[in-house]
Amino acid sequence: MSRLFGTDGVRGVFNVDLTPEVALKLGLAIGSYFGSGSRIIVGNDFRAGSLSLSNAVISGLLSCGIRVYYAGFTPTPALQYYIKEKGFDGGVMITASHNPPQYNGIKVIMDDGIEASREVEKVIEDYYFSLRFKRVKWRYVLNQVYSVHDVNDFYVRGVLKLVDKDLISKRGFKVVADLANNVSSLTTPKLLRELSVKVLTINGDMSHEPYRTPEPNRESLSDLYKVVTAVGADLGLAHDGDADRVIFIDELGNFIPGDYSATLLARYLVERDRDSPKRVVTAVSSSVVVEEVLKPLGVEVIWTKVGSIGIARLMKRVGALCGFEENGGFMYPKHQYVRDGAMTIALMLEYLAKEKTTLSKALSTIPKYYLIKTKVPMDRERAFRMVEKVKEVYSKHKYIDIDGVKVFEKDYWFLVRPSGTEPLLRVIVEGRTKGIAEKVLSELMKLIKVGG
What we know:
The protein contains 15 helices and 21 strands.
C-alpha cells in the first residue's frame, strides 16, 4: 500500500497532487476513523485552495456522521490548543506549513492537540486506499456545520497566562514581526500588544501569493534584517505559513538558527521551571551546541527523528522540559506538546526581560558553529540510496542513523536525510569555522554527484 502521509500530514501541490477529490476521500477516511458522533473541528491557513480543501474534508466528515465545527482562518497551534482545552475528539488543519506557496496540506490532530501518530495515520490510509468508508444512513447525517469564532483569542489568552506580563511590559520592547502573509497576522500582533510591545509588522496582509517564501530561513528573511536595524528594534521575528514556528533576528540584524534560540530558552527553563524533568527532546537535525550547553547543567538530551509528531509523542511519554527542531519549531509542555510560534515568542521576551540582556549578548554566551543548509532535488528512492552511500563512506566515524545519517567529528558534524515533505535530499553541515563547513559540504556534494 502506498503512503499518503509524510513527515507532518498529507502534502502536495494544490489542484495537481492535492485536489478537492483527494481531500473528500481523506475526509471520509478521517471520519471513518473517528466514528459517527465524534466532535471534530476544522481550521485552515490562507494558502491557495485552503477553503476548497476545508469544504471537501468537511463533506467527507459529514457523510460519516461527524459533528463538524469550523474555526476558519487560524494558526495551527491555535487550533491544537482549542482542541485540547475544549474537549474535542480531534481536528483537521488545512496547511502546508513552510512548503512553497503552490503546496497545501491536510493534517489530523488528536484529542490531546498533538498530530496523529504514525499508527493512526496507517489506519486512516487503510480506509483511504480500500474505500471501506463508514458512511452513516441518510437519516443520521447532520445538516449543520457549527461555526466557532473564538479560537484565536482563546489561544492568545492561553499564551499570556504562562508568562510574566508585567516583567515583559516594563522592558518596553520594540519588535519587527514578519508574518509571512498568513494567519499569524491574526494572533501575533495582538499577543505582542497585550505585552506592551511596540510592534512593526511586515508581510502582514493575508495572501496566497506571499512576498517571501513561507519557510523563514536565512535567504528569505533578508528584508527583515534591514528593517530591524533601520528602526532600531530590539529583535525581529518571522513565522512560517501556519505560525507553528518562529525564527528570531537579533538587534544587529543577525539570523538566529532555531536550535540556537531553543538552546537559550532551554537553559532559561532549567532555572525557571524546576518542577519539570531535566530532559529535552530534539531532532537529529539540531546542532551539537544543544549538548555542549545543556549537558553540563545536568540536562539529558534525547535525539530523535526529524518531525514534530515524533518529538511531541516522545516528550509526552518520557516527560521533558521542552522539545524543538532546528527550523524554529519549539514545544513547551506546560502550554502544549506541539510547535507553537506565539508561545515561543512570549518565552523569549520574558527571558530577555528577566536577564536584562539583548539577543546578541545572550547568543554570545554559547558556542558558535558555522551553519550551511542546502537541498538537492531527487526522488525518495535515490535520496535513500545517497544516505546509504554516505554511511558507507563515513562508516569509521561516529554516527547515528535513526533518520538519514548524522556524522560527528571534533570540528564539525553533518546530516544527510531524505525530506519527508518534498522530493529532496536535505544536507546540513556545521563547522567550527566557515572554512571547515564549506570543505565538508564540498566533499559531500561531490559524493552525492558521483553516487547519483
